[in-house]
Amino acid sequence: MSLLLFRVDDRLIHGQVVIGWGRPLGIDFIVLVDDAVRESSWEQDLYRMGVPPEIEVIFASREETARDFEQWSSSPRRGILLAGSVETIAVLGEAGMPIPKVNLGGVHHRPGRSERLPYLYLTDEELQLLEKLAQAGVEVTAQDLPTATPVSLQGLP
Prior knowledge:
Blueprint: E1 3-8, H1 15-25, E2 29-33, H2 35-38, H3 41-49, E3 56-60, H4 62-73, E4 79-83, H5 86-94, E5 101-104, E6 114-117, E7 120-122, H6 124-135, E8 139-142, E9 151-152
Parallel strand pairs: 1-4, 1-5, 2-3, 2-4, 5-8
Antiparallel strand pairs: 6-7, 8-9
């Protein structure tokens, strides 16, 4: 499979994704799945500025992701699928996309969320969505940096 990383990070594209994860994985493309960003050309321009020119950025809605997932998965190029929310990755999993593992990166504080790790805040509903993914066979771990030790979903406080 050429999608090497399925990451949830509410900051979307930033240095940690491009340098911290992208370089070690040798990625050629990033699929950024976010319906609002898909419709905003100025946001797309901002995110493209954070990525070297040799890495393609594909902005996709959830619907487009369902349609094009197989193409990205079977590409000879190496890629990352990046979602800005737990809900988005859960919808993709529920749609039947074969997601073997989800990496929870930066999911930051907002009202209703509780701190699970210093970089991971989740509502009870988000935690339930992740547990449902795990029950469907998806390995869910939290890991902010590739050099950090992954924390299993069961290991979250």
